[in-house]
Amino acid sequence: MFISTKNEQISVYSNGCLESPPMEQTADSNDGSPPVSYFSDLSLLPTTCTDVNVVPEHEKNELRQSMSNLEGEIAQLKLKQKLWDEKRREALNKIIDLKGSIRVFCRVRPFLVIDKRRTHEPFSAGSEKIVVKSSGARKEFEFDKVFPKETSQEDVFAEVEPILRSALDGHNVCVFAHGQTGTGKTFTMDGTNEEPGIIPRALREIFSQASLDNSSSLTFTMSMLEVYMGNLRDLLSPKAAPRAHEAVATCNLSIQTDTKGFIEIEGLTEVPVLDFAKARWWYNRGKRVRSTAWTNVNETSSRSHCLTRISIFRHGDALEAKREVSKLWLVDLGGSERLLKTGATGLTLDEGRAINLSLSALGDVIAALRRKRGHVPYRNSKLTQILKDSLGHGSKVLMLVHVSPCEEDVGETICSLSFAKRARAIEYNREISEDLKKQKENRTKELENDMRGAEEECQKIKNQIQKAEFLLHENIKIFSTTYGPSEDEEAPIGHKEVVKEVIETPRKPGKASRGNASNSLPRFMTSTAASRHRQTASERQIVGKARSLRTSSVTGSSIQFSASQSMSYSSDARFRAILQNSNRKSRYSRETDTVPAESPRCHVSELSKTAACSQPRSKMVTSSDPNLRVTLNRHRRRMSDLV
Ligand SMILES: Nc1ncnc2c1ncn2[C@@H]1O[C@H](COP(=O)(O)OP(=O)(O)OP(=O)(O)O)[C@@H](O)[C@H]1O
Fold first, then answer.
1. DSSP for residue 200
2. Which parts form a coiled-coil structure per UniProt (predicted)?
3. What pLDDT digit, counting tens, does each position of 461-490 carry?
């Protein structure tokens, strides 16, 4: 007895004959995949099978043939899926290029309780424009998008999401939050538990997208660092996890460029992250280290830039086993301040200068790239040196400039908006005509439709692959149960590899399957870590039954196939339930918020560690400006909440 799918219908073979049960019901799959028929009358199915030794040869051959057909079908579907995925990527890339590979958004912070006057705003915000009226002057600033005060975190993320997908497609991506202290950079990037920001949402999204992409295998690593006064501090270093009262080690990492122009930060900790839960765990750890550093060293987040890097490794299939790497940088920049206004002195003044220098270097680089200048001044700051290979050709950049709605901050607001204007400088300072704008919009809509169509096709094919793989898996079990243990002797040509792929499908590295000596089943039937994970309770039941049947066949007794067993392989409803269940289960395990059970391994870059970590002094920030003191106190409170 075996299962085959011919003309997209499931058939059950027994004793060499195709049992032709009435195809009374056809389940129209609501996922768009072709309908799969299933049996409704169990009594029509054979219940007894004769001794394995007298099973005719042609039945065995038919079973082999069926498995080969399934293999071929899976290979073809995978190829088709790859082509659609390429179409989707192409469309997305064109959309991003049309919209501009360097985009600048502006977000207006709502009034806070601590704001003094909360009625009058010094500017008016449109969907792509901000007009500031100050001291009788009127200044206009254009953006790719303006997020007004009431914009939710979800709406902001919706605009950021396409660029993240571009990172998964192999492009380097940088997302920056820029603005005056207290205007909501950290709120946008990190957010709160109730309103998560771009980073936690991005982590969730990339793992969710990666699970949909089975045309290639994606793996991820994560690093976090802080740039403070030109020094780099590794936030995920095993040494960088002090308790609240302890000082944080300051590591001065160095930046290296390889022969291909690829940037490597020597000694920076890079942790493999297998799922969202682990990525979030590491991210929270990095944040905690940063907050402890603030309380001990620089007091406020505004005094440093915080960079989170997700490296995405795309592994091709066995035929083209090349590995591509792309980087996604999520950067919470230090607060831009006008030093004269704050009246900063001493350390605060130095910190402010360092931040302003690096922000201005970043502005220069982005403006040079936007204007397609031959020379791009990356070397002018540590920040731009680190990001050199992620800001240039083929990369996508998103700058989110934050402004305060308060009248007293209007000077800072104009500075931030001017920074954005410079970064956004259109090529040759020429604005495009309305006509061209319309054409661009129409083309973007077309491409968005193409992309959606390609996504739907990919999803349909994915469902078909899952079904075919499930059927192949089940046929393999039946083959083994019916015809005995010798895999090499019995399995069809090329079978072993496919079986391995179906059972293991190793998307993520590090969990090599090991042979189980105690298991008497052929190797291709033994469960692996991945298959065990995927197995639902009902699947396990099926395997259990197959094993007990297999045992009886080995001892030479005749095999009893009950109708219900036959149904368990062929019922589409159940089959779908199993698939849905396993999908739900894997999604849950991805999204669970719990700290990873196993202690996370830390992979430190092969390159040797340079500058020794020194213990920083505890420093106090001083400011003559009472407003700044209020801000610092607010930060201290926030830090102590975190610790
Ligand atoms: N869009 C928003 N909606 C609600 N609250 C916001 C918003 N933006 C900022 N806030 C609040 O404003 C305060 C300051 O925001 P945040 O700390 O994110 O500013 P920041 O620019 O990162 O400051 P710093 O440069 O000092 O780190 C926080 O209490 C934050 O919750």
1. H
2. 60-87, 429-471
3. 888 998 999 999 888 888 888 776 544 444
Residues 376/365, Cβ–Cβ less than 8 Å: yes
- Alpha carbon of 241 to those of 206, 292, 495, 603: distances in Å? 27, 9, 49, 16
In 368-479 the beta strands, taken as DSSP E runs, fall at 396-403
User: Quick check: is 261 in a domain?
Assistant: yes
Residue 91 included in any domain: no
| Ligand 1 pocket, CB under 6 A | 109-110, 112, 179, 181-187, 300-302, 335, 402
The whole model's pTM is what? 0.61
Q: How many domains does the chain have?
A: 2
How much distance in Å is there from the Cα of 187 to the middle of ligand 1? 5
- Asked if the structure places residue 441 within a domain, the reply is no
Joined tokens for residue 455? 């996504």
The atom of ligand 1 lying closest to the CA of 190 is 18
Cβ(605)–Cβ(272) under 8 Å?
A: no
- State the CATH number of the domain containing residue 118: 3.40.850.10
Whether ipTM exceeds 0.95: yes
* Contact call for residues 239 and 249 (beta carbons, < 8 A): yes
| Residue 35 main-chain phi, psi, to 5 deg | -65, 145
Say if residue 68 is in the same domain as residue 193.
no
The parent domain of residue 478 ranges over 2-81+452-570
Q: How far apart are CA 26 and CA 8, in angstroms?
A: 11
Do 258 and 196 belong together in one domain? yes
Q: Are residues 327 and 382 in the same domain?
A: yes
